[in-house]
Amino acid sequence: MTHFVGNLFSDIPGDLPDECVQQLAGNPHVRIERIVSAGHASPPGFWYDQDEQEWVMVLQGEAKLSIQASEAALADGGGAQSQLQPKSLSQLQSQPQTRHSVVVLKAGDQLLIPAHQKHRVEWTSASEPTIWLAVFFSPEDPGPPEDLGPPEQLGPPGDLGATDQT
Question: What's the CATH fold of domain 32-140?
Fold first, then answer.
């Protein structure tokens, strides 16, 4: 197994005309990215609508996100805030006239955005790079691990399938 050692705060490009997105690790079920923003925002009128759930944490800098209320929340009259995870973010402010919530994330703040929860980045810090750690994963349970066969084929505990060569 190859080990990769790196620092999320190093190798920040000086000039960022676009966000810098680097995949750090992943497999078919999960993707981990470092995102570096410098005064970036989603294009006017653009809303992300992803098939995956996204857990995001701001490591440095800050950002303002708008999160649109889901159709179910609007139908139930619960508003956008009832659809956000975690609900305890003190920065969360409901915006009923626009049917979305606004959250300002600072270093150390994290947010789980469910799949197909429309959201956009209103702004990121211009005075320093905003460094995000983002984990994207399937909203469905991928099921049990691959079948390893009947226990008698695996050998004794701790053997990991090794065969006796004597």
Answer: Jelly Rolls (2.60.120)
Contact 57, 110 (CB under 8 A): yes
Q: Is the pLDDT reported for residue 133 higher than 80?
A: yes
Contact 136, 53 (CB under 8 A): yes
How many degrees, rounded to 5, is the angle at CA 50 between CA 63 and CA 6? 60
pLDDT at 87: 39
Cβ atoms of residues 79 and 92 within 8 Å = no
pLDDT digits (tens, 9 = 90+) for 60-83: 999 999 999 865 554 555 433 333
Rounded Cα distance between 40 and 23, Å, is 19
- Is the model's pLDDT at 90 over the cut of 80? no
Each as own residue / partner, the long-range contacts of residues 93-98 (CB below 8 Å, 24 or more positions apart, any chain) are: 95/66
* Domain parsing of the chain, residue ranges: 32-140
The C-alpha atoms of residue 151 and residue 157 are separated, in whole angstroms, by: 10
